[in-house]
């Protein structure tokens, strides 16, 4: 059969490759005459890989028949535990002195001037929710949650309710209110305070008459202590 010696060689190579013999030895003379399946001894090698080409790797002996051979580059990969640290200046966020040193420039001694303020947009006023502290208190300050109405009332209405006579009579003096939901005082009030403030009453400066719209101007107020603010740590820090 044509090509029989070639198939025999492949079969012998798969079984170990030790008993494979070249076609030139089987032909006896190595001439081009004879059966079409025989090859010259000096003819180019076939595409069948030699054992030396497939002896390495975990799948030894099958490299030529199993696609690409497994990579042998595992030993050349970098081991981060034993390798030196890779330093790449492009990945650093340096200050001006460090940047100049890395790029071999003279370190500047004068910083560039600040650019002029932007002329875009328009100026606005910004209010801060802060209070001036003239003296660190020795006693603790108590923080309270304040809920007026459903908690989503407008700031103007909440300030008006907080300044009402009913609130002043219930709390007394010495309170700080942030205009929203928090208040502070040196007084400790363990009980929860619940009030109804009618801004249309004569006590609050109203005429006492119901509104034409029929909508009530009564507002529910709930004040509850939630936290104790101590200044011992801050005082010790300021004293050094």
Automatic annotation (TrEMBL):
The source's domain of life comes to Eukaryota
The protein's name = Protein argonaute
Residue spans with biased composition (Basic residues)? 211-220
Q: Where is the composition biased (Polar residues)?
A: 47-58
Q: Where is the composition biased (Low complexity)?
A: 16-36
The record's gene field reads ago1_2
Where in this chain does the record put each Protein argonaute N-terminal domain? Answer: 122-239
Q: Where is this region: Disordered?
A: 1-86, 200-220
In which organism is this protein found? Answer: Friedmanniomyces endolithicus
Q: In this record, what's one Pfam family? A: ArgoN
């Amino acid at each position: 059969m044509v090509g029989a010696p070639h198939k025999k060689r492949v079969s012998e190579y798969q079984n170990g490759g030790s008993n494979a013999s070249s076609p030139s030895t089987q032909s006896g003379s190595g001439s081009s005459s004879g059966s079409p399946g025989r090859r010259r001894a000096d003819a180019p090698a076939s595409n069948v890989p030699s054992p030396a080409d497939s002896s390495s790797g975990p799948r030894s002996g099958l490299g030529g028949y199993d696609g690409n051979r497994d990579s042998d580059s595992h030993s050349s990969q970098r081991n981060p535990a034993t390798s030196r640290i890779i330093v790449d200046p492009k990945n650093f966020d340096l200050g001006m002195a460090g940047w100049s040193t890395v790029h071999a420039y003279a370190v500047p001694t004068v910083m560039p001037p600040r650019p002029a303020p932007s002329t875009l947009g328009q100026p606005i006023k910004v209010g801060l929710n802060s209070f001036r502290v003239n003296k660190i208190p020795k006693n603790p300050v108590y923080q309270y949650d304040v809920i007026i109405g459903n908690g989503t009332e407008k700031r103007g209405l909440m300030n008006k309710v907080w300044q009402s006579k009913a609130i002043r009579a219930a709390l007394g003096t010495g309170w700080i209110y942030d205009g929203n939901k928090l208040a502070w005082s040196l007084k400790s009030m363990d009980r929860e305070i619940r009030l109804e403030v009618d801004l249309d009453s004569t006590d609050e400066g109203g005429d006492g008459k119901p509104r034409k719209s029929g909508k009530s101007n009564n507002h529910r107020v709930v004040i509850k202590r939630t936290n104790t603010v101590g200044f011992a740590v801050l005082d010790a820090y300021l004293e050094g």
